[in-house]
Amino acid sequence: MLGPARLLLCAVLGAPQAVVADDAVWWSALEKGTALLRVGRYEEAESLLRSSLEASRHFGQDDARVAVSLNNLGEVRRARGAYTEAEEYFIAALDIWERTLGPDDRAVATASNNLALARADQGRYSEAEELLRKALDIKERLLGPDHQEVALILDNLAGVRRALGAREEGARLYARAIAILESAGGAESEDLAATLNNLAGVYFDQEQYYEAEPFVSRALRIWEKALGPQHPNVATCLHNLGMLHLALADPEGAERRFRKALLIREQALGAGHPRVADTLQGLAAVYHAQRRWDEAETLYRRVLHIRESAQGSNHPDLAPSLQGLSHLLRKTRRKSEAKQLEARARALANGTPRTSARR
């Protein structure tokens, strides 16, 4: 099951009034672009955030406005699946803030959090964990252990620990984040919805499907009310409900939810986005379970193409698609190709990279 990682946007934290007053053009582009990013209008957001970065350049390469624009542009690129490019923007923002503000500033923690997410998106979970623990230490010292920004980093750290197999620790971190967010933002906050959805993933990993469902459904209700029915976060919940129905041997219910999620994701993110591949993978699993071999194979191969193009040929997310397709090939008496895919899936599971270049 999937959940949104928790970015910290600089516009949320606020820009000093002196900085805002210096350049109304820069601030207007940043503010409008960040607002569009929040509601999932990524193409428009990117255009404005690129304008904000261009407007900031004449203030000097180490100006705070440059770092803010780099950070928020990095998130829109990350939201659109350009993870390596997003990483470059976050590194540049982090470099400016570390040099101008020192290593223990709140902005340094923000950039460290965001860089961690870009690396986690690429399957570099140990690097992400190191950055998140750094960010958490800074935020807790500066803001206290019960601040909402601390909760967002706890959520991200929980996701990374879960990806590394530490599910019990992940559950504890999610529970701590939920307690903070319920106290700070109430029972209907968007941030709380994300952590509820993510905690459901822990139950899913443990095959506790009925325990997972209420968390996802609650997150869905919050996001539909707050963000509207076409937001990518709504698609995330629909996808996860599809996964639950598939696990509960209800392929028809799963297919309905996957198709709704797919429509939203393709429109909001584009047909080549890794989150689109996630939902196509779910649909392929539905068809596989129903022995609709041709339809399942078409989707498995499309998923592999998207993942290799967007995430590279060594990303861990390739393994489930390789395994699903190899099983299908064995069922349809194509054992030679199945063996090749199985070997590749095992190599990914063992952390052994392919020798071919990233596409």
Describe this structure in words.
This protein has 359 residues and is an all-alpha fold. The chain folds into 3 domains: 1-142, Serine Threonine Protein Phosphatase 5, Tetratricopeptide repeat, CATH 1.25.40.10; 144-224, Tetratricopeptide repeat domain (Serine Threonine Protein Phosphatase 5, Tetratricopeptide repeat, Alpha Horseshoe), CATH 1.25.40.10; 228-359, Serine Threonine Protein Phosphatase 5, Tetratricopeptide repeat (Alpha Horseshoe). It is 78% helix and 0% strand. The two termini are 26 Å apart.
Task: Output the structural class.
Answer: mainly alpha
The amount of helix comes to: over 70%
Number of separate domains? 3
Q: What is the third-level CATH name, the topology of the largest domain? A: Serine Threonine Protein Phosphatase 5, Tetratricopeptide repeat
Discrete helix count: 18
Radius of gyration: 21 Å
Question: Major sheet, described briefly?
Answer: none
The assigned CATH architecture of the largest domain is Alpha Horseshoe
CATH H level, superfamily name of the largest domain: Tetratricopeptide repeat domain
N→C terminal distance:
26 Å
SS elements, strand count: 0
Which CATH class of the largest domain applies here? Mainly Alpha
Shape: globular
Give helix and strand order, one letter per element, not per position.
Answer: HHHHHHHHHHHHHHHHHH
- The average pLDDT score comes to 90
Strand content: under 5%
Give unreliable regions as ranges.
Answer: 11-21, 352-359
